[in-house]
Protein 1
Amino acid sequence: MEDKFIQGKSLIEWKRDYPLLNEIISTNEVFWFNPKNQRYNKAVRNISISEDNVKDAEERLIRFAPYIAKAFPETSKSKGIIESPIVEIPKMKGKVKKIFNRNIKGKLLIKCDNDLPIAGSIKARGGIYEVLKHAEDLAIKNGMLSLEDDYSIIDSEKFRNFFSKYSIAVGSTGNLGLSIGIISAKLGFNVTVHMSADAKEWKKNLLKSKGVNVVEHNSDYTKAVEEGRKEAASDPNSYFVDDENSLNLFLGYAVAAYRLKEQLDKMDIIVDDEHPLFVYLPCGVGGGPGGVTFGLKLVYGDNVHCFFAEPTHSPCMLIGMMTGLHDKVSVGDFGIDNITEADGLAVGRPSGFVGKTLENLLSGIYTVEDNELYRLLSLLIDTEDISLEPSALAGAYGPIKLFDEGYRYIENNNLKDKMENATHIIWSTGGSLVPKDIMKEYYKKGLSLL
Ligand SMILES: *Cc1c(COP(=O)(O)O)cnc(C)c1O
């Protein structure tokens, strides 16, 4: 192992250049501060994606709102806008102080993407957006739709017949498959979801019940994506949702930031020079947390500090960003097994597109052990009655970590005197579709670890 070569350098050399790799390879928890993090105005100069792109995505979702409201009545209250609540969680904050012995200074909030309608996870943002965009492109190109139409006409036999001539494919560990599968089937597309071995049985069954073709692979996420890509490439009427490289997914996620700002404004929560905002986002391949981070930076610039969270056994974005190798490297190259209960985060190779886009905007990445996810899962149910899937708890570990090893970040960025004014947002990424009996098992496991 020690004399193994990775991208032209021996493991010994990699460890010498990046000593944190010793801990990462031993699957110990770490907190990495991104040394390439820059002032916002400087960092955006190197990024080709602009505010106009995100605004365009926001407008597209508004055009589709009448369709969504009609096709998914559960969204009628929000008039077809797919959005989640944000709430303060003071009881959880108190409990964290007791159990983890960490005093979180500032307000503690949770952004409940677990409650997003239709797909029950953060994938209801990017995944649904990308399929809607594809549907719009096809319909406009074929003279069936114009931008000025009331898009509720899409919920009809005429459109379903039209879309049934086209197919959509995706590779997933579970939740992206759910979101792409549900929206594509509803529109009338033929949809195939390639599921990795990590995918939970109930997620596959739910999709099959909605008429989605589910192909089960014995391999990990990267391989499932590759299979999906291959299959789609052989059919000109097939569209592949590329979780590793998709700009559209990224833009769908980024829209969340505008919506969040509206919510914080309504709650009279200030974010400015004296009131820093900290956001903690679970990271798999990177699109979800990356898109949200990009949007938040557009909105709040240097006043928002975004951290990604990864399982100790799947630290792909951490290794990719730290070494600068991005998608040229997988955790397996460093002998890490990519085995985690956090199925949404079980990704061994990060998105190079996301890693490079956020290279100068991300504050840092920490890793978390699976057992901590379960402990937090039970605590959050006990204190606030919020039920999340294990992956979604990775963000909840962030504030605990920040006021521990992460404190150096606060000191180095002269934030110490501002922490009483800070707001911390745990980005919860999934959970509302988890069957009750499975959630009970998760809860019991967490309790046994407390
Ligand atoms: C997909 C997912 C993430 C991470 O999103 P990526 O785009 O893969 O980084 C986090 N949590 C849950 C529950 C997810 O399903």
Protein 2
Amino acid sequence: MIIPFLSFSPQHGPIRSEVLAAIADVYDKQWYVLGEQVKAFEAEYSAFNRVAHTVGVANGLDALHLALEALGVQAGDEVIVPSNTYIATWLAVSFVGGVPVPVEPDPRTYNLDPARLEAAITPRTKGIMPVHLYGQACEMGPILAVARRHGLWVVEDNAQAQGAAWEGELTGSFGAVNGTSFYPGKNLGALGDAGAVTTNDETLAAKIRALRNYGSQQKYYNEVIGHNSRLDELQAAVLRVKLPQLPGWTAQRQAVGALYNQYLAGLGDLVPPAVAPGATHVYHLYVVRTNRRDALQNHLTAAGIGTLIHYPVPPHRQQAYAHLNLPGAFPLAEELAATSLSLPMWPGMTEQHVAAVAGAVRAFFAE
Ligand SMILES: *Cc1c(COP(=O)(O)O)cnc(C)c1O
């Protein structure tokens, strides 16, 4: 059985005609940038995420970048980021002249370890950027407590975790202002690049609305030096069709995750994902760990099973961050990069798919 790492077919098949009708509607209305679709999507996403304001932007990286700009991060300001995140979190800090200060994860959840935060705080620290990695909510209670104690803001990177929760509150609703991504492969994906900022702060929302549109609130009047980072009407129209499906798709991801947990229990040194008490996991990715990662990946590839590595090189080992002179200082991030493997995970995967993946993993460890 060939099992791709990701298939959109079970998600996109049933809504095909609805999506195409929404696209045709935008085509016919002849209004393509910042119109009624973006406005309606922003209201609908705010209701979904239980926040007061959503501002649609061009992609997830811009969402984080504009969030930090709106908070007034300046050259030399330090921002705490995970040592084991996707590089976008660090790049957003660098774009505003800030210094990313990596903190190692809890080795069980792979999320920012609240107990390690205080040691990284200096007089130059301005904020903390938790990333709900792979779809599991960070331990927001302890993170927010540290932030409050030190007068820091929090900006959540919610690109991988739409719909996840910490003690009943949704990710993307805790920070002063938060960023998410609707890159096609994310849990809520557009048909191209798209992203959004979520916040309960009206002033910050207004700043970001201006920043995404040339620093302008009134056409041809520019108060600040802004960007062009707008969510397209076409993408907003597609996202409006997909958003109501997200809870169902999330439930399917969670069912697949539970099946994997059953089928993969007790195989060799394989470590399945662990969920912290108080957190929910929406399984953007189902990531396992083993010291024989590369051999397991080769074995699965030969068996027709698609896998990926998230992520093979931690940000501090990237050439882009060579100037920070950090190599070797983050052993957990390096260990995760060397041992992690993402198995196929998509809404609509069947128990047969899971059993076939697990069978191939079992055969590998039996060899
Ligand atoms: C995808 C992703 C981003 C960036 O989103 P884009 O829309 O691709 O710019 C940021 N952070 C994390 C953790 C991501 O997974």
